[in-house]
Input
Amino acid sequence: MTSAAPRSADPDHLWSVDDHLEDVLATVRPLEPIDLQLLDAQGCVLVDDVMVPVSLPPFDNSSMDGYAVRVTDVAGASEEFPAVLEVVGDVAAGAADLVRVGPGQAARIMTGAPLPPGAEAVVPVEWTDGGLDEGPATGMLARSLAPEGAAGHVQVYRSAEPRAHVRLKGSDVRAGVCALEAGTVLGPPQIGLLAAIGRGTVRVRPRARVVVMSTGSELVQPDEELGGGQIYDSNSFALTAAARDAGAIAYRVGAVTDDAETLRATIEDQLIRADLLVTTGGVSVGAYDVVKEALSDFGDADEAGGGVEFRKLAMQPGKPQGFGSIGPDHTPLLALPGNPVSSYVSFELFVRPAVRALMGLADIHRPRVRATLTADAPLRSPKGRRQFLRGSYADGEVTPVGGADSHLVAALAHADALIVVPEDMASVEPGAEVEVILLR
Output
């Protein structure tokens, strides 16, 4: 990781959202690749192409429960004039020693079982009498209940084309081709494919480990009793959940009191398990905003990428922000404001892209669309600030949810989008087209 060089030494300078995001992403490098077991690699990004060592399926096999037959032996078969074939044995899934099907013969075969030598097609058991001489069968009796079913004769009531109900070797994927390309995100289907071609481990960029901590002596954990002037700590829960939603392995730390030494010690303790640290609260200009105090001398900004820089951004909510790197490994840290909406919006704009960049993902941003604003009145926005309003999006239209205040947690919980009002606009009329960031 490297630190972005400050573009302005003026503490009152308002940074643009885009410039701040650019500097944040400049501090982040994808994590080093590691080899992981398949289930541990879920959600990770492949580093190398994965080639297919063995065809899928690896042999011709039956797609039905029925009888393996020669095509000529069942040509013209009907219920009035069935083909009567000698049953020479069973072929079960996993069978290695296969019976041979000769002229006038058939083998009872199960779904997934190898097509025996001599056979050219499979007729489903429903096209036969199942060897019971009682008309069309509805299924096969279990071998343990009817071992005689693998011998005797079977009546076949329909003809079959060559390879009917047969999955051909390599019909899914052939040996030597690329199964998954580098950069693929491993979800359940991809992990299933890797297992199917015999790969038990895979080389990936690991999921980022994100540690989230909130600050403030007024914060109380849920389920505890509130005292005077206290509120429940919601930010650390929301941001930990957001980090997991972004694909990270996230750890939540209980709220830290407004004491710089305590905060500094807590951060130092968490460095061992963090690829990225996120704090919320304590970045404004109040006398008890201790994050600035705790981090001001945490790392030397002149030393190979160390140090944390605090800024004011031309955005609402989320004006105060901090970012940089700390500790011997220059672990990235993003310091977010403490108001619930401010912290969540800041996470979506800055932390989520950083998390996904660490993991080597190509799509690091939430999707954005254009939508028609549906509202009862114009949206007001402070000129010179890029405003992000909560909204509900559906079918090309977006409706504001709640007001613009940064403490409205309930409104945020009912929003699934952010309405973006550009810096050069002081109001947006109903019916206007706006940019929308989709949150789900």
User: Anything to note?
Assistant: The radius of gyration is 32 Å. Residues 340-358 form the longest helix (19 residues).
